[in-house]
Write the structure tokens for this entry.
Amino acid sequence: MNSKSTTKHNLLALKQLSDNLTSYFKVGSWWPGLSKDEIIIGAVLTQNTSWKNVKLSLDTLKENNLLEIKKFSNINKTYLMKLIKSSGFYKQKSQTLIDLSKLIEGYPTLNEFFKSPISKTREELLSIKGIGPETADSILLYAGDKSIFVVDNYTKRITKRVLGLDKELSYDELQESIHILTKSVKKYKALHGGFVELAKEYCKKEPICIKCPIKKYCVYFLNNKK
Ligand code: SF4
């Protein structure tokens, strides 16, 4: 967004939302992966499936000493498909992991891969079939510690309700708004985690507003309470 499409009022409301979310949900870094490799592989596997299923695949890769992205560049695709089957869409995800491995193999280390400007690394990630903005930005933020906010469907749903908007903001609009508020990697991680926690506990498809810790700031709640 350029600031033209985000009103001043929405920015202030977003700031209030982000301050409240990060103080209510002490989620720290949030992403469950331990190593950069695990985070990168997990970011691809988690598309359209639950983390429980991803964890099974990550455990299988670990048992086979394959929890390292560069190891996929020459792997037999059918074998990889078998190892990550629990994550679903395993044919496409295997190809994505192989292509990603080939890209990262061009750099001496993962740290070198993340050393380029964010826009260049993001463009390279997005050029791979199966990697969209959410996956690319998760890799950049959580594995690369880059200053970029990850937008997901939870973020879109919550901001629409809290800000009282007629329709959800787009990925770019939301990301650019949060980027106006802060550039802090730590805050991006805490805020992303806060959106996920709020959506899972309270702001579900059918929201449980009465118990929600931020209801007094939420336009949806204020408009709908009896
Ligand atoms: S008050 Fe309700 S709609 Fe608003 S953020 Fe909380 S759960 Fe979602």
The domain at 36-143 is CATH 1.10.340.30 (Endonuclease III; domain 1). Residues 158, 161-162, 202-203, 207-209, 212, 214-215, 218, 220-221 surround iron/sulfur cluster (CB under 6 Å).
